[in-house]
Each structure stands twice: as structure tokens, then as C-alpha cells.
Amino acid sequence: MTKVIIPARIKSSRLPEKVLKDVEGLPLFVVTANKAIEIIGRKSVIVATDSIKVLEVAKRFNILCEMTSDKCLTGSDRVVTLAKEKGYKKVINLQADEPLFPCSSIQKMINHVENN
């Protein structure tokens, strides 16, 4: 089964705590996660973070969230680390600050990953 892993860190140098910024009443990463959940389901979307703040917000919104090392240099590192740790074979990396992605694009990626 394909998993969508959303790396979310708060130590952005250009805009600190960007993933927690409000977007129409919700934290940015929650908007992104909710769109992914609509497409693939709650059990297949996991936020990967090194932040207790993000973990607590995810719990409040009933979004699966896993802590990863603060040694991960990039979002992709965070995704790979979690996928290896959990044994996930089919993974899509969806950046937390991409709430405007077209749902059809994610569905195409899911179809591609599941069929290849």
C-alpha cells in the first residue's frame, strides 16, 4: 500500500515555523495533510517531523505523525528515514508547504507508484 509522507519541520531559515502558519483557520501542514487524506485515506498519510509542536498539532487534528531525527538535512531525508524505519516500500513525498497541489496530480502519482 502506498503511503504519503509529509515532512514538516519548523526550523525554516526564511520563515520560521512556516508549517504552523494559519491558512484559513488551519495550520499549513494540516491543510496539506487533509487534502492528501481526502485522496488516499487517513491511515496512509503520515507527517514526519522533528518538532513536538507539529506532533501535538497533528494529534489535535487526528493526523498520523511520527518523530524523526533532527539530523535530517532535508524533507526528502526525513521521508526516506521514516520509510526505512517503518518498512514502507511505496512512498510519495508531499511537502508540507504545498497545500495548493492539484488532487489529480497526487492521484496520478499514487496510481503510478502502485502500478510500477
Notable features of this structure?
116 residues, alpha/beta, four-stranded parallel beta sheet, two-stranded antiparallel sheet, 4 helices, 19% strand
Describe the structure.
This protein has 116 residues and is of the alpha/beta class. 41% of the residues lie in helices and 19% in strands. It is built from four helices and six strands; from the N terminus they run E-E-E-H-E-H-E-H-E-H. A four-stranded parallel sheet has the order 5-4-1-6, sandwiched between helices. Helix 1 (28-40) packs across helix 4. It is globular. The protein starts with a strand and ends with a helix.
List the helices and strands and how they pair.
Elements: E1 3-8, E2 22-23, E3 26-27, H1 28-40, E4 45-49, H2 52-60, E5 64-67, H3 75-86, E6 91-93, H4 103-115
Helix pairs in contact: 1-4
Instruction: Give a short account of the largest sheet.
Output: 4 strands, parallel
Instruction: Please report which band the strand proportion falls in: under 5%, 5-15%, 15-25%, 25-35%, 35-45% or over 45%.
Output: 15-25%
Tally of separate helices: 4
Residue stretches low in confidence (pLDDT < 50, at least 5 long) are none
The gyration radius over C-alpha positions equals 13 Å
Please state the average pLDDT score: 93
Distance between the termini: 12 Å
- Shape from CA axes? globular
The computed structural class is: alpha/beta
> How are the strands of the biggest sheet laid out side by side?
5-4-1-6
How helical, in percent, are the residues?
40-55%
The strand count comes to 6
Could you state the order of secondary-structure elements as H and E? EEEHEHEHEH
